[in-house]
Each structure stands twice: as structure tokens, then as C-alpha cells.
Amino acid sequence: MQKTHDQTYSAVSLFSGCGGFCEGARLAGFDVLTAVENDRFAVETYRHNFPEVVLFAETVEAFRTDGDPRWEPEKERFKALESEELDLLFGGPPCQGYSQIGTRDLDDPRNKLYREFVRVLSDLQPRAFLMENVPNMLMMAKGTFAEQALTALRDAGYKNAEVRVLAATEFGVPQLRKRAVFFGTRDDISLPLPAGEWIDAIAALERQPEATVGEAIGDLPKLVSVDDSVLAYPRLRSTNSIRSELRLDTEGRYYSAAEKLARAGGKRVLHNHHTKEIQERRQQLIAQLKPGAKGDSLPPEVWNGLRPEKWRRLHPGRPAYTILAQMHRDLSEWVHPKHERWITVREAARLQSFHDGFVFKSSEWQMLKQIGNAVPPLLGRAAGMAARRALEAADGTWELPAGTHRQEALELAA
User: Under DSSP, is residue 342 helix (H, G, I), strand (E, B) or coil?
Assistant: First the structure.
């Protein structure tokens, strides 16, 4: 169990991926009863890290759909969902149809997957929900998709539903990443604030100092594993807030060292510290990149004048730019801030705020894709805390500080 909560609330996860949002929800004190994910490679990682969760390894469209041949033989495993009231439904429908770097196609069928979230929401009727997506969803078609989603969520019995954009850096994630978070409570749940203001207030109370690339990965070794075998764990020479959270041998704000070590299988070793091979020509090229520099800083005989972001070296004194699923194809945008190589799977995981006890499975290609698609656990925790505090307030076990709104909450957090 996490150190910060004695009571847990029940939850179901949709579009679970490798489990970043589930990790965040668990940190916020939720007991994830069931998860739904159909990508077989993400499922492998999910099962390793969440063996206690009952997993439906099929599409959300099939989940709790009577008559569907994928659901009928499996439904007995999910009987527990019928026996008690569910506290939270959460998840992130695939975002490629909305993403700034994706298709931005108004007719992309993935743009409609929020309707499957709403269908399950209507079915399970949890006390609260969290649905996340890329911020660009709020702007697509002049906000039409966001308004359609809010209308559907409200019509499902969650009139107090709003959306806010949360920045990962505000919650200790060493990365520039933002997510649109839809949050709402069932109509019989009373909150002292509208849902949007509630997210603002809780997010401000949960705010943490900004973390940098160097703070997050500076202790990891230069040499990498060539075959994904484990390496000796790096010695602790210095620590900081984010490193204490992620290392196996340090006490974090949210994780105990004992918990992280147990999650790693009880052995203090370094998992997933491997990366793509690099050709000598490319190694010579990135050697000319200064920390924080892009391709347009290179001499004209080296850089072809096209897309400067093709080559980028992370800056050790700043948060990373966004970790993306496209890493699995080409890591040239994620050059290590100090070493003449790409970042490793473990370094990418740390920049997403996964601790070292969270082990990724399948191929290197798939691991990088899973990490890039994931919700950073510490961002997921912040969103989860908005839901948890709402449930506690409804249960009379927690009160929002009197008169709190976003500015006052920021002052309290400081």
C-alpha cells in the first residue's frame, strides 16, 4: 500500500495501456479492481506490474457488452463489479485523432472512443469519473468534440462535470507535458465547488517543485545493457526530491523504499537500461549538439536545413520536452544531456515519473511506445487526488479549506 493513505476507494480503469494512470490512481489511494486494455504488448507490462488486477485483455467496446463473443466467456471473472458500489471510473481514450503531432482528422474513428467511456460510465454508475486526453481535443473543430464529450458525460448522470488542463511539471514530473482532464461526480454526490473549480483547487494543493532532467536521470550509468539483462544498481551519491521518489533505495514523498524494492522483485538491480544502437555517423553528429540545442544549431554541412527538432539534446537543468510514443521509431529527438547516445528505456520511464520498480516488458520498440503513450504516474496521481478528495468530502472525512479557490490553494501549498 502507499504510505499516504489508510483508506482505499474502488476503481475501474479503461484504455489502461501499460498502467501509468493506474499507477497514479493507486498512489492517490484507489484500489483498481479491473482494467481494460487490448494491446498485447502493453498487456504484458500491465500484468507484470499489476498482478492483482482483473484484466480484460480486449477492446473497451467489448467490455460489459452482452452477446459479444469476447465478453461472454469472460464475464464470470468480473462478478465483483456487481456486488458493491464503484467509486471511480477512469481512463484515457486513444488520442491520436486529436494530437497535435497526430492526424488531427475530424473523421478519425478514435475521436469517438470517448463514447465507449460514457457507455461504461452509464452502466457502472461510479460516484466519480476521470477521463483524460490531449489538450488539442479542446480546440479541435472549434471545441465541438470537447463540448460533445461534456454533454454526453452530463447526460449520463454527472451534471457536475468540467474539464481542465493540467501541466505535468506542476506535480514533480520532469517533463513538459499537458493533459486535458475531464472530471465529474454523480448527481447524488454533493461538492462545495463546481467540478472545474474543484480540480483547480485540489491541483494547486497538490503542487510540487519543478524537477529537471539531470535531477531525474543524473545517477543512471553511462553504460547500457545490450540485451535487456539487468545491471548493477547505481550507487547513491546524491539525492533530490524526484530521484528519491524514483530510486529503489530511497524514501520518497509517495513511495517507500520497501514498496519500490518489492515491486522490483526484491532485488536491487537496474531494469530496462538499454537503448537503440547508434551509428558512428550519428554519434559524431550528436556530439556537436550542446545541452538544450536542436538541429539548427549544427554547422550547415551537417544539418540539412529541415525540421530542427529532428535532432535535440535534452538539457540537464530543465524539464524534458514531451516524451512521445514515436520514440520507438527514432530516438534522435531524445539525445542524452551528457552522453553521446540516446536515452534508455529506463531514462524515458523516469522522465515520465515511473519508479525503478516498475518493469517494462516485451521488445525495446514496444517498451518505448508504451512509455510514450502513458499518463505520467505523478500527473495521474494529481488527477486522482481530485477524485479522492471529492469522495472524502462527500463521506465527511475531509474538508476543502474554507473559502479555497485556486489562488488561495496556491498560497496554502506554498
Answer: strand
Find residue 10's DSSP bridge partners. Answer: 31
Structural domains in the chain plus CATH codes: 9-210+375-413 (3.40.50.150)
Show pLDDT as tens, one digit a residue, over the chain (414 residues).
334 457 889 999 999 999 999 999 999 999 999 999 999 999 999 999 999 999 999 999 999 999 999 999 999 999 999 988 999 999 999 855 545 545 545 555 556 789 999 999 999 999 999 999 999 888 887 888 899 999 999 999 999 999 999 999 999 999 999 999 999 999 999 999 999 999 999 999 999 999 999 999 999 999 999 998 999 999 999 999 999 999 999 999 999 999 999 999 999 999 999 999 999 999 999 999 999 999 999 998 888 878 888 899 999 999 999 999 999 999 999 999 999 999 999 999 999 999 999 999 999 999 999 999 999 999 999 999 999 999 999 999 999 987 676 666 666 665
CB atoms under 10 Å from CB of 50, counted, come to: 19
- Rounded to 5°, angle at Cα 120 from 148 and 370: 85
Which phi and psi (to 5°) does residue 34 adopt?
-140, 145
What single DSSP character describes residue 234? Answer: P
Active site residues: 95
Q: What angle do CA 273, 254, 381 make, to 5 degrees?
A: 85
What's the rounded Cα separation, in Å, for the pair 244 and 239?
Answer: 6
Cβ partners under 8 Å of residue 139, min gap 6: none
Is the pTM higher than 0.85? The answer reads yes
Q: What angle do CA 193, 198, 204 make, to 5 degrees?
A: 135
